[in-house]
Amino acid sequence: MAEALVIIPTYNEIENVERIIRNVFSLQRDFHILIVDDSSPDGTGDKVRELQLEYSEYLFLLERAGKLGLGTAYIAGFKWALERSYEYIFEMDADFSHNPNDLIRLYNACSKGTSQMAIGSRYVTGVNVVNWPMSRVLLSWLASKYVRFITGMNIHDTTAGFICYKREVLERINLDKIKFVGYAFQIEMKFKAYLLKFKIKEIPVVFTDRTNGTSKMSKGIISEAVFGVIKMKFKSLFKSYEI
């Protein structure tokens, strides 16, 4: 059994899912993949089931009843992984905005280094984003600066969603107490790992915006991040804050 699991949430990713799966399985290090699909009407789940005939021991599918949010998809995936013996658990998008080749770099940061959490960072060495309009680059960069200022975390890319966790991090965080479901989920997970004093390392990566499918970003997701961060930081000042 591989010691590393890559969790990939999907909703209407039929244009990307086969290619991302085959790409991960072509890497020199062995990874298992768990697709968490929110009943995609475009047949994403059906394509994964078809590929399971080829990769029966390495590819897994967790199907959920409808579009329930990014955060809850990852939490379901984390719980699935913790029920098994995976030591390294990854978050990665299905749309190739995260380069699968960087999985090995994140893995090495945790397995060969002293880090318990490795972040594929767009901003640790400047701004490494391709195919985004300047307005969106600026929004994302300022959001990370804002979160860093409010929370006190020494992390440049606080909203990144390309992450390797050592098992012990997810075992310490109470996954049932995660409040956010959109992209603020990424901030909350980092903040709780930070409060638990785990060593977090940023690995510079190039983020390339999707060329197939449609973005899941919305105003509600941005609002959750902006106002949720203040609320999260305020609660953390009290001993009753549950990590």
Automatic annotation (TrEMBL):
Keyword Repressor in annotation: no
UniProt KW keywords: Glycosyltransferase, Transferase
Membrane-spanning ranges: none
A Pfam family this chain is assigned to: Glycos_transf_2
Location of the Glycosyltransferase 2-like domain: 6-172
Annotated Gene3D superfamilies: Spore Coat Polysaccharide Biosynthesis Protein SpsA, Chain A
Similarity annotation: Belongs to the glycosyltransferase 2 family.
PANTHER family: DOLICHOL-PHOSPHATE MANNOSYLTRANSFERASE SUBUNIT 1
Name of this chain's protein: Polyprenol monophosphomannose synthase
Species of provenance: Aquimarina celericrescens
Lineage: Bacteria, Pseudomonadati, Bacteroidota, Flavobacteriia, Flavobacteriales
